Structures are given as C-alpha cells and as structure tokens.
Amino acid sequence: MKNIIRLGVVLVTFVVMGCQQTSENQGIQVVTSEEMQTLLSLDDVQLIDVRTPEEYAEGYIANFQNIDFFSETFDADILKLDKNKPVILYCKKGGRSAKCAEKMLEAGFVKIYDLQGGISKWEHDGHAVVKPN
C-alpha cells in the first residue's frame, strides 16, 4: 500500500512539473531542421538570425533577417517585429536564439520557433546556406 501511495505522489509531482514547464514555454517551440523546412513555407512568418553581422556574412539561411543579439539596439529591434505573427529564430548553436525566444515571449510574441542546434546543425543535416562572395 505504501508503494502505491509513493507511486501516486511521484506521478502527481511529474504532472505538476510538466504543467509548469509547458505554461512557462507555451509560446516557444524548439524545432528540428526538418520541422523548420516545413515552417519556412508558412505565410507571414518572420525569419530572424540573431548572430553577429560577421557570423551572418560567413553564411546564412536564405531569407533570414539579421538582428544581432549582442547589439545595443537588440531589444528595440525585436520590438519592431509583429508580435502576432510567428517568428523563427536561429543562431550558431542554439544558445542565443533560446535567450532571444525568452525575451520575445516576455515581450508578448505569440508563437516563437527556435531552431535546435542553430545553423551548425542545419548545415550538418545537409540543408542549404547562402554564402556571400
């Protein structure tokens, strides 16, 4: 009987923890490069690369706008975007885009997609990158 009660307590704890995590990240979805391929076909999606201009110049995913996460104007720059339209974010490996996603969620953006593993994973998975001359 004690084991059944313990099991019940453990299950309730996991359910509560899961609900809290879902509500905290409700507007953010981490996506694989394959999932992002599908998202790129959405209408009115905003495509944001949060790497530095130097990193962006080395290669970027087609049609993405560069808004440097480390820029002094970063917070103001992201607020120029439409909060009601979906946003897809990426950086080099996923750290900066995750931080940006949290900032955007706090600012009231409704749907944010964050590319898992960033452009490094995107390229590793064989997807195209624009390489400027």
Give an account of the 3D structure.
The chain is of the alpha/beta class. Helices cover 46% and strands 14% of the residues. The chain contains 6 helices and 5 strands, in the order αβαβαβαβαβα. Helix 3 links the parallel strand 2 (46-49) and strand 3. Residues 7-24 have low confidence and may be disordered.
Helix content: 40-55%
Shape: globular
Please provide the ordered H/E string of secondary-structure elements. Answer: HEHEHEHEHEH
> How many β-strand stretches?
5
Total helices: the number is 6
Structural class comes to alpha/beta
The overall pLDDT, averaged over residues, is: 86
Largest sheet: 5 strands, parallel
- N-to-C CA distance: 71 Å
Strand order of the largest sheet: 1-5-4-2-3
What is Rg? 18 Å
What is the subunit organization of this protein?
single chain
Poorly predicted residue ranges: 7-24
Classify the beta-strand content into a percent band: 5-15%
List the helices and strands and how they pair.
Layout: H1 2-24, E1 28-31, H2 33-39, E2 46-49, H3 53-58, E3 65-66, H4 74-79, E4 87-90, H5 95-106, E5 112-115, H6 118-124
Parallel strand pairs: 1-5, 2-3, 2-4, 4-5
Give me some keywords for this one.
133 residues; alpha/beta; five-stranded parallel sheet; 5 strands
Brief summary of the model shown:
By secondary structure, this protein is of the alpha/beta class. Helix content is 46%, strand content 14%.
